[in-house]
Amino acid sequence: MTPDLVARTTTRKIVTRAVQALLLVAVVAGTIGFVALGKTVTLSIDGATRTVHTFAGDVEGVLDRQEVEVSARDLVSPALGSAITDGATVTVRYARLLKLDIDGVDREVWTTARSVDEALAQLGMRTEGAALSTSRSSAIGRDGLELSMRLAKTITIAADGATDELTTTVVTVEDALDEAGLTLDANDLVRPARSTLVTAGLSIAVTRVTSEDLSETTELPYATEVRQDADEYEDYEEVAQEGSPGARVRDLRVFKHDGVEAYRVLLSDRITVAPVARVVVVGTKERPAAPPPPPPPPSGGGSVGTGVWDRLAECESGGNWSINTGNGYYGGLQFSYGTWL
Questions:
Q1: For the chain, what is the total number of helices (H) and then of strands (E)?
Q2: Dist. CA 192–CA 179, nearest whole Å
Q3: Nearest to 252 by CA among 268, 274, 236, 229
Q4: Is the dihedral of CA 17, 23, 25, 27 positive or negative?
Q5: What is the pLDDT of residues 161-181, one digit of tens each?
């Protein structure tokens, strides 16, 4: 190899090594700059934590690059538009639909709580003594939870002459009466109605309803029937038939409220004995006018003395010269009407 060839070869090696060195410096500098521009962020997604490296400038960018989708109901802290810094922590808590049945009243709420106990605390509900359909420590998944809750309430029950307080978690008045050990039948009255929802301070009144059947007999008065008889004189009156009362029987059902009669229901009404009318017969024939009294006996010789006429009247009419017995004969001597014509 000639000296010129050796020199040229040496020069090329030096240049190549210089270029390689420059490229290395550029790569190292670029890497340092890349690292300097990126940020380390801690992501907490529903309690699950991981560390990510990002070039995003705000929280929303960090979540987008990590493919974390959020809705308006979800809790994101800091807010989506907040600038991100190295070492920051981004917290995401997904909202869950909580379907509540509180003492029979349905309600839907969204919560970011991950347990029943935490959700109740978020809602500010006082649940001391309440009965829940699931454990307070139960987790609430992303698909939500249905929760029935029966709050403790103090009520009063008035029944059978006594008024007592009861603290209960039941839903309806009927449930409360069952819990109090009160046995009701279909006729007993309950105020408010048995299906009413129980609320704090509610007063329940029970009225015992009993019934008994009885019969009442009343007397029916008889009528008086007057019959006219044209063959009898006007002053004639005779009872042809005596009257007698009838009998009416009413079957009743008597209802009592707490032992006191409240009302009656008529079951049947019948006449067991018909009344018999009293029949009276009266005459309608007009009596003829009374004849004039007989003339006095003649005086003088050969005449009959008054003593004879008086004795005759005494025999015929008891001495009553004006008698009218209705037998068609008149006066003391009992002459017929035709005798005087």
A1: 5, 20
A2: 17
A3: 268
A4: negative
A5: 999 999 999 989 999 999 999
**pLDDT value, residue 37:** 61
Q: Which residues pair with 75 in a beta bridge?
A: 93
Domain range 211-285, CATH class: mainly beta
| Domain 306-340 in CATH 3.40.190.170 | no
pLDDT tens-digit readout, 247-262: 999 999 999 999 999 9
Give CA–CA dist 238/281, Å, rounded.
5
Domains 153-207 and 306-340 share a fold: no
Rounded CA-CA distance 276/312 in Å is 50
State pTM to two decimals. Answer: 0.51
Torsion of CA 284, 285, 289, 291, to 10 degrees: -130
CATH of domain 153-207: 3.10.20
Q: Angle at Cα 113 formed by Cα 111 and Cα 119, nearest 5°?
A: 75
Count the Cβ atoms, other than its own, within 10 Å of residue 118: 16
- pLDDT above 80 for 210: yes
Going by DSSP bridges, is the β-strand pair 203-207/189-191 parallel, antiparallel, or unpaired?
antiparallel
- Could you tell me the residue ranges of all domains in the chain? 1-33, 39-93, 96-150, 153-207, 211-285, 306-340
| CATH topology for the 96-150 domain | Ubiquitin-like (UB roll) (3.10.20)
Average pLDDT rounded to a whole number, residues 291-319: 66
How many residues are there in the chain? Answer: 341
* DSSP states of 88-135: -EEEEE--EEEEEEETTEEEEEEE--SBHHHHHHHTT---TT-EESS-
Note the CATH number of domain 39-93: 3.10.20.30
Q: HEC string of 16-55? A: HHHHHHHHHHHHHHHHHHHHHHCEEEEEEECCEEEEEEEC
